[in-house]
Every structure is written in C-alpha cells, then in structure tokens.
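// run 5 | inverse folding | seed 20
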C-alpha cells in the first residue's frame, strides 16, 4: 500500500509541476522562481529576508540560492542589499516583482484550480492534514 501511495503522490506532483511550468512560462518564471518570489514577498514582507533565511525556508543549498537570486535581481524582480554583516544580503521584492506577481497569480491560481477541481474540498483538507502529519513524522 505504501508503494501505491508514494507512486500516486509522485505522479500527481510531476503532473502539477508540468502544469505550473506551462502556466508560468509566458512570464519567464518556473515553479521554483515563483516560490522564491513568493517567499521574499509574503514571508519577508517590507523588511525582506536574509539570503540564508531563504535557503533555510526553501530547504536548498545557499550556493543555489545565490545563483537564482542574482538572476532574479538581474530581471529587477528583487533587490539584494547588504545585511547586518558584510557577508549577508537582505532580499526584498521590488515594485517590478510585485507587478509581476499581481499578473501571474490569477493564471497560476487557475492552473491550481484545474488540477484540484476533481477532488472535493473536504477531501483536499483531509489530504493536507495527512501530508502534514507524514511530513512531520519524517522530519521528527
């Protein structure tokens, strides 16, 4: 049974990633870069986040964060300012990044709704609860 559950999750995750990528491509985004922007905007807020905090939240290596943040900065979607110490960087969303997210969100949300419309909302809540419990058990 565990194999079937895991296989089903992987299949759905791959399908969701492909749908998200298709929806985001016209905006020059990937699901990963959208996640970066959402973390910076919604968790960082006006003061932003330190680069290492982004790496911790996204569970990825600091080196990979640096590369992606430089690319997002080049597109003027984020700004990287010196942090409290000379080696740290404070990351904030720019007005251009905010405008992009305002345009992207309805398209992305529609893609998510297309993917989840076949599962009643009560079942979606159950699934979130089950996956949260599973994640906590694996993390603990």
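// decoded
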């Amino acid at each position: 049974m565990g194999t079937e559950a895991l296989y089903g999750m992987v299949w759905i995750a791959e399908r969701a990633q492909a749908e998200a990528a298709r929806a985001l491509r016209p905006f020059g985004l990937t699901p990963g870069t959208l996640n970066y922007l959402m973390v910076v905007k919604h968790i960082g807020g006006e003061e932003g986040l330190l680069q290492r905090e982004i790496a911790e939240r996204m569970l990825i290596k600091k080196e990979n964060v640096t590369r992606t943040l430089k690319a997002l900065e080049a597109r003027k979607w984020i700004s990287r300012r010196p942090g409290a110490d000379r080696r740290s960087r404070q990351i904030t969303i720019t007005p251009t990044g905010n405008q992009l997210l305002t345009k992207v969100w309805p398209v992305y949300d529609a893609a998510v709704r297309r993917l989840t419309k076949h599962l009643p909302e009560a079942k979606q809540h159950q699934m979130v609860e089950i996956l949260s419990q599973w994640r906590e058990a694996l993390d603990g």
